[in-house]
Automatic annotation (TrEMBL):
Transmembrane segments: none
InterPro entries listed in its UniProt record: 6-hairpin_glycosidase_sf, Beta-AFase-like, Beta-AFase-like_GH127_cat, Beta-AFase-like_GH127_middle
Annotated ranges, domain Non-reducing end beta-L-arabinofuranosidase-like GH127 middle: 435-510
Signal peptide: 1-20
Domain Non-reducing end beta-L-arabinofuranosidase-like GH127 catalytic, residue spans: 84-398
Keyword vocabulary terms for this entry: Signal
Protein known as: Glycoside hydrolase family 127 protein
Lineage, uppermost ranks: Bacteria, Pseudomonadati, Bacteroidota, Chitinophagia, Chitinophagales
Gene Ontology biological-process annotations: carbohydrate metabolic process
Source species, domain of life: Bacteria
Source species of the chain: Niabella soli DSM 19437
Amino acid sequence: MLLQKIFSTLLITGTLLAAAQAQETKRPVQKVNFLVPSAYAIQLPETDQLTGYLGMRYTYNLRNRLLKIDEKGILEGFQSRPGKQRWIGEHVGKYLEAAANTWIITKNAALKTQMDRIFNELIKTQLPDGYLGTYLPDSYWTSWDVWVHKYDLVGLLAYYRVTGDRRALTAAVKVGDLLLKNIGDLPGQKDIIKTGSHVGMAATSVIDPMTDLYQWTGDRRYLDFCKYIIKAYDHPAGPSIVTTLLKEKQVDKVANGKAYEMLSNLVGIIKLYRLTGDEKYLQACRNAFDDIAAKRLFVTGTTSDHERFMPDNILQADTAAHMGEGCVTTTWIQFNVQLFAITGDLKYYNEIEKSVYNHLLGAENPETGCVSYYTPLIGIKPYRCNITCCLSSVPRGIALIPYLNYGKLNNRPTVLLYEAADIKDRVVTAGGRETPVALQINTTFPKEGKATIKVALPSAARFALQLRVPAWANGFKAVIAGKTYTAQANELVVIDRNWARENIIAISFEIPVTVLQGGASYPNYIAIKRGPQVLSADQSLNPSFDITKTAFRTPVAVQLTSTPAKLPAQWIGKQAYSVTFKTGTNKEQPVLLVPYAEASQTGGDASVWIPAGN
């Protein structure tokens, strides 16, 4: 007991110390702002602590994935060149980004110590000329070398953003300058299309962090390099990303259809639009979104089959299809975040919500922190803890969640997800005065469609608070001081009022159950969706019948009964729903369903698509 108390005291002291140090650190400010105004600011309020369902998964990501990172494995390619794997160098940059985004929220002392240690070891390996890859000189700028430097930039700039450590920016500038020196269209330079894989899309995706490097430094050479990449897309044997999307409006017509690399480029292209205002960049990205959302998106909010965009409506969902690459899921979310930031259009946010509640969380086992490279809708999720691109990418996606549940939309504080959270922010009142505000959201969502929001201020003030009405919600109501506010699904409720020092908003909405048809790929199957969550039948929870071979009659409607008591003791998650289907012989068969994000966590075969041919 004494040792436990000592350990607890040390842990608390360490956390408080880290928090105190963070308060003392002056976070750096970017030198260049976006030219195109932002509808949604992708930045944190003063504090945003998720305490509910997503908070649980966020904590598991910290505890079971980030803090258990294989430090030797992600660094050895730099410390002993050449690396064992062609893209081994990407992992440290991905880790640093996920760790930075998580530490700035949690102030977890152990994470800060680990993050600092990995950063320090990484920059020790940077050569005097700025090289920070995992290749030997005779292989520089071939294969995945530019790709590795891309993720160096991602990680270094993320670390700099949250710590203010100038060494990180210095290392990033050296990387940027080395790229400018070696790649371009001047004599003696290499064509970027010829320096990387997948019709050059792996290398050209460096456009993303190069826009960030321009913003942090104000050095226009980095912006010019991004414009060079846009031109290089149309070089001989180049991917013609923008040109093809403007003409064909289909992502499967671009280059070799490689989803991860293409989406990585699109994230950079849309940032370049925000810096330049060139409308063709935005239109190309809009075309890509419309095509993916309409024809290439699984019901759980991911895309790709064998890592590529398939022809229209081909959405094979079993393990053999190698569907839903984890890197693609995370980058699809990043892409939608950028589109939402520019436009404020809720259709982009709806895709973020769908991906987060389903495929993103479904790709990481909450108990072990292991990640499935491809995460099927039919079959056992192949969770593994060995280093892969997806083991590094999925935690990055989960680390983004606190940037997405609440923020300023069109300069108004806006609650976007009805997740339990403690939020502190500053708002501008109707009189132009800035005042602190605290929002405490209490809810059991996604189990129930109820929430209370306590709004606390130091003194009475008038301002507008916005509440997003989810696209799937019915009967949304927000009640405060006897006044009811309503809006249709996929709209915003605006509460513009004189707020007292303490206020309580009571929110309620129906969480509908929807029967989804299997489409062209699964014409004789159905899936069940409850609110934003797609449900799955886990074989380990349904031992009395074969979930993939028992055909049911297609129900007109589905009645779910909450039965969490049927879950085994070790199960992580508190949602389970019983439903009774009828077989072709009119026999009633009880089926237990759980959220797809939690299915297969104990190694059970699971299926979103349920046979219902009649």
